[in-house]
Amino acid sequence: MDPSLFSAVRNTCFVNVILPLAISKTYTYRIPHEWSDKIAVGMRVIVQFGKNKIYSAIVKEVTELAPERYEAKYVLDILDQQPIVDGAQLKLWEWMASYYMCTLGEVMQAALPAALKLASETKIIASDQEGLDKSQLSDKEYMIMEALEIAGELRVSDIVKLLGQKTVFPILKQLFDNGFLMISEEISERYKPKKKTTLF
């Protein structure tokens, strides 16, 4: 066997990720060779789960072991330059999942702000844009903001269709970071009527 081919196989990098879903295990995805030195535990990656659902997932482990029962799909993108969750937090998540008899995905859903766990069906709205400079937006960012101005609310899957590309999370992340976007559920939670407690 050609030694160079053996080296390429050995250097193939995989990640086990936590998906923001009520599933009992992590799933393994393949990292493109050019991203192998950029990935780390605790970062968010964009992955496809099922036929057409896209999620941002947390890297739980980086490994060279390929899954045995299925062919690993490629990670579509890396969202973070630095981990947003550290090892101690991941251990705490595991403890919580065990103690409360739930899944890591459910703990992730509860632990992370909505903007950090985007998925295909996440609903997005424009924030109060007073004081924000739209002139600095890229063409694609401007298209998203114009579409939101017309529609009021869009799912991530709608934005995928609008831009004609599968990976839109980095563009959305930039808009979130610059204050242009909000998650619809954040607004719902903020203005949800508070329940009154009656003492008898």
TrEMBL record:
Name of the protein described by the UniProt record: Primosomal protein N' 3' DNA-binding domain-containing protein
Coiled-coil segments: none
GO aspect biological process, one term: DNA recombination
Gene3D superfamilies xrefs: PriA, 3(prime) DNA-binding domain
Ranges where the Primosomal protein N' 3' DNA-binding domain occurs: 16-113
Membrane-spanning residues: none
Keywords, sorted A to Z: ATP-binding, DNA-binding, Nucleotide-binding
Organism: Sphingobacterium spiritivorum ATCC 33300
Single GO term (MF): 3'-5' DNA helicase activity
The keyword Hydrolase is assigned to this record: no
